[in-house]
Amino acid sequence: MTILQSVSTTVDKNDVIRPLGSFENLFDLYTQRLPVQFSVIAELDSVVNPDDVRAALLKLQAAQPLLAVGVSRSGTTASFYRSANPIDLVVAPSGTPWEKVAIADQARALDVTTAPLARCTVVAHAHSSTIVMTFAHQIADGMSAAATLRDLVRALNGVELVARPMPAAQETLLAEAFEARPITPSEAPAQTNESPVQARLLENDESPVLSRLGSVRDFDSTPPDISSLVWPAELTSRVLACTRAQSTTLHALLTAAAVRVMFAETNRGSLALMNPMDIRRPSGADDSLALYFLSTRMGFTAEKSHDVWALAREIRQHIASAHTLEQLAGMSSGMSAASSSVSRVDDAIGAMVSFANYDVMVSNLGDLGTYEGHASLGSEVGAPLDTLGRRPEVGITDLFGPTMATQIAGEQILALSSFNGRLRTTMTTRDPMPHFLQKLRAEVEAAINAVTQTPTKALRPHEKTDEEIS
């Protein structure tokens, strides 16, 4: 078992930025024994010099306040303090696959008692590079991490990054956004006797599934299994069109399919699902690096999960009903009240397990854009400068993530994102199911073929394509 000791060194009061919010504090205490860190990955169209990456990381730290902080527990309140320490840059052996880097990062805990709370790995290939950024969860979520990785590439291209203000704690952000919202009579909050703890997560009616106790595994540096699959653009387009026609979403269909595959593979009678939700759009927050998400949970039983489209519509409706400013502010307030007195690692672990126990989590970063590089210029190390003395631009050719483990026993964490019009699915787990991502794709294809005229070519469960890496 790895136990990191709380920071007890005295911090100059002028370096203290703000106290941790209750959600940040919960994650920070939890990660002192059970690391919760995640990685986002960018494939680049050129070979980048590690020294250039170091310089770009310094620019990134100057622009993103939470990349230049540590956590002090020397006083009565845990606080973020400023740190001038640079982000650690690891130069991996040439040609190392990104999955191998991400696996190693999950097996090597970030030291959350020091600063900063992130690290970066760069890998050179023959004519390209890979950058993997890993973040402690108390300073970041997947959406802001992907935006931060894009900013790192912008800095590599010589773009001056604008310094951002210190993000408010999530509870403050949502409370202020809720208070500032325009209220119509139909939106006026109804009186309720619901307790703060009951308000913390919106759950569906499978309460017996969700009320069972979860458990954690001791962190022992055992590496997880990470696999990924890139879907063809044509299939991705069909999924999007078909889910719209069926009054649901890509996320909901993929989640429903994952639930059905897990039932088929495990012969279990019930499953608990965790759905993280980004709060930026409802609250009006930008993409600054911060811990800005809340989750809903759903319970499923095998006998009620036969119709994948009905399941997908139920999941979509459940998430839509939770993803409103009123619901998010209520959940945040409830979680804050329930965790405000948590000050010990054991209490934080107990609190997290009580409302974060799940069998499968589906984290969706959405559409991450398209390739906008200039590979035709050639940008290997040592390539000549152009006529204006500029280096060729570095472009992102692919984005993956987040790859993450939370040390919940038996967890399966499925990450979804799209780039260049193609869906990416990534699974992180210490209890791998053979060919899970292929079976997931087959389940989705079967669902689409059942309601459309043009069948897709099914991928047999044991078959790999040149787009899958595992």
Automatic annotation (TrEMBL):
Q: Which PANTHER family does UniProt cross-reference here? A: ALCOHOL O-ACETYLTRANSFERASE 1-RELATED
UniProt name for this protein: Condensation domain-containing protein
Q: Which top-level group of life is the source organism from?
A: Bacteria
Family matches, as SUPFAM superfamilies: CoA-dependent acyltransferases
The record's listing under Gene3D superfamilies reads:
Chloramphenicol acetyltransferase-like domain, Nonribosomal peptide synthetase, condensation domain
Q: Which organism is it from?
A: Subtercola lobariae
Phylogenetic classification of the source organism: Bacteria, Bacillati, Actinomycetota, Actinomycetes, Micrococcales
